[in-house]
């Protein structure tokens, strides 16, 4: 007896497609439409083609912000990934201390981004902040509002404090998923702790580390709220990243056409770098 295929289940997927179209495709098409027009008001729009893209790609603000963004994201990954792995390796695996550590590690992730910026803005103040006042008492001339290096270090430490927990929790879950038989074999072979980490733990955490690297790169490359609240992009333009430059162009100057072209270039850069990360890491995993 031949069974008649029933494709009615595909109707269940339709709401998902509609939701994605409404939340992603429609706004994206709107931005694409704005990026090829010179908009004066609702009734005055002129097609300019790729003029805004050429203008944005030649804009020195984009070049400077892009360089700062890559340096910042590279610093974030170089610090948070090894630090998250080290914290995960030292966390207890059983008992009450395990649950307590998980709760403590999750606390920074629950704090809203604008609150994080406000906390560090007060914490780092040279007059009333615990960090700033303590450093000045020790003879260190610290002022994140006036010194470029101090602002950079403060923004970077703030991000490390806020997001290293995510990397640590992901690595901890990867470590807990390793079967005990691997550790039993290592004990029989009298393998050192470094050998266990290099040949058992690190290879088994590759997929988790891929997720951690991708998440932290994309989030650090799109960072806006924390440095905006903490430094306002200053001193000067020292901590003005791509998202802040885009906001200044779209909201401050109301240049919708160039801002739309800028946002699409921004999106393509994130997509390209994320794809390169994913391809390189999956290729290494296959080898």
From TrEMBL:
Q: What is its main location?
A: membrane
Q: Does the keyword Thylakoid apply?
A: no
UniProt GO BP: transmembrane transport
Q: Does the keyword Ribonucleoprotein apply?
A: no
Give the keywords, sorted.
Membrane, Transmembrane, Transmembrane helix, Transport
A cellular component term from Gene Ontology for this protein is:
plasma membrane
Q: Where do the ABC transmembrane type-1 domain residues begin and end?
A: 66-277
Q: Which residues cross the membrane?
A: 70-89, 101-123, 151-172, 208-225, 259-278
What's a Pfam family in this record? Answer: BPD_transp_1
Tell me where it resides: Cell membrane
InterPro entries found in the cross-reference section: MetI-like, MetI-like_sf, Sugar_ABC_transporter
Record's bilayer topology term? Multi-pass membrane protein
PANTHER family noted in UniProt: GLUCOSE IMPORT SYSTEM PERMEASE PROTEIN GLCT (PTHR43759:SF1), TREHALOSE TRANSPORT SYSTEM PERMEASE PROTEIN SUGA (PTHR43759)
Q: Per the similarity annotation, which family is this?
A: Belongs to the binding-protein-dependent transport system permease family.
Question: Any idea what this protein is called?
Answer: Sugar ABC transporter permease
- Highest classification ranks of the organism: Bacteria, Pseudomonadati, Pseudomonadota, Gammaproteobacteria, Pseudomonadales
